Amino acid sequence: MSVRSSRGTLSKAVRDLNVAWGQTKNYWRDAKAREFEEKYIDPLPDALNNASSIIEELDRVLTKIRRDCE
Fold it and tell me: Quick check: pTM over 0.85?
């Protein structure tokens, strides 16, 4: 699996999780659900952006290494 495809896989997983969470919220509406959302779901967009930036940097470094080794 390439570094770039990993970023796509991660993005899709977050989208899928958000869809599933939206469905779950229809049934789970107590304080623990709000706590779960605040602790795990709400931070996901920032975490995804940070991970994407790191993945892009890794891709640049690996591309440079490949070129230097040719």
Answer: no
